[in-house]
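Saturday, quiet lab. Running sequence design on the structure tokens for the scaffold JK sent over.
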């Protein structure tokens, strides 16, 4: 079991702000960016290459491209689109969706990704993490956790939230299927197998703009030493500040607030800097 780390802000360690695009195929079979709520009710948002260009110029620390139906549909990631995004993106690019084998990892990196994000493929065959880390380095392997709260007695690690106690379950195939796997147990296993980062999504908060699931993010952050990227629920700079100070996340990912022009990446980072959170301006 890895040593647990302290929660809260660690001075000197720069926090990252990361825009994310969720990409699917439109009715014509073309790649398009969509935004939804709780992984459902997707709304067209824009063109992936155009958004990549915009975020590359916005002061973002990194950029995440998620093919949100590749795993559920049993198809490969849109590598031609990834290549187009990579051509316009001069910051670290993470690509996820439909990655099941070491060959998939290789092809995704070859298309221009700096890192790959794996969810379903790793849950169904955990040795994929070992294989990827050994072949390409842990820094390339991001394990994505699509978590949801469960209020029953089937979990292993419980947390008091309000007057209720819950555990966090890993789901797969874009949140469509439960696994019965406890998020904290899986985070520890992924770290031990060689994951370089953990990308933690909350299905309960996805697209709600009600703030990150702080109990979830804090629980994972305190259980591992691997960097944790918090995702789902960001409604503004205050939420990003909270997930860094209360959730102990190393990076914060957001989509809707950037896609719809509510805030810019620079505005969020300036707010953090003004509140003594170390960021790259």
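Result came back. Writing it out in full:
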């Amino acid at each position: 079991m890895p040593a647990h780390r302290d929660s809260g802000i660690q001075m000197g360690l720069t926090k990252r702000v990361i825009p994310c695009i969720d990409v699917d195929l439109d009715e014509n079979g073309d790649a398009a960016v969509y935004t939804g709520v709780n992984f459902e009710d997707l709304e067209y948002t824009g063109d992936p290459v155009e958004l990549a260009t915009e975020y590359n110029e916005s002061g973002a620390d990194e950029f995440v491209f998620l093919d949100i139906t590749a795993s559920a549909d049993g198809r490969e990631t849109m590598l031609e689109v990834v290549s187009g995004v990579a051509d316009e993106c001069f910051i670290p690019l993470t690509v996820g969706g439909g990655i099941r084998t070491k060959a998939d990892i290789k092809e995704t990196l070859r298309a221009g990704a700096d890192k790959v994000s794996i969810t379903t493929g790793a849950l169904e065959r955990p040795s994929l993490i070992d294989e990827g880390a050994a072949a390409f380095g842990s820094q390339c392997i991001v394990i994505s956790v699509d978590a949801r709260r469960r209020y029953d007695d089937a979990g292993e690690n419980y947390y008091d939230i309000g007057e209720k106690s819950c555990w966090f379950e890993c789901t797969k195939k874009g949140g469509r299927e439960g696994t019965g796997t406890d998020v904290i147990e899986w985070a520890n296993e992924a770290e031990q197998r060689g994951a370089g980062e953990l990308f933690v999504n909350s299905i309960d908060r996805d697209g709600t703009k009600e703030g990150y699931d702080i109990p979830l993010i804090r629980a994972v952050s305190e259980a591992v030493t691997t960097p944790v990227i918090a995702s789902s629920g960001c409604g503004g700079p205050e939420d990003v500040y909270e997930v860094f100070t209360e959730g102990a996340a190393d990076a914060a990912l957001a989509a809707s607030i950037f896609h719809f022009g509510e805030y810019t990446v620079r505005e969020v980072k300036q707010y953090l800097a003004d509140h003594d959170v170390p960021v790259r301006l």
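Notes for JK: The first strand starts at residue 16 and ends at 25. The CA atoms of residues 94 and 140 lie 9 Å apart. Ask whether to fix the surface positions before the next round.
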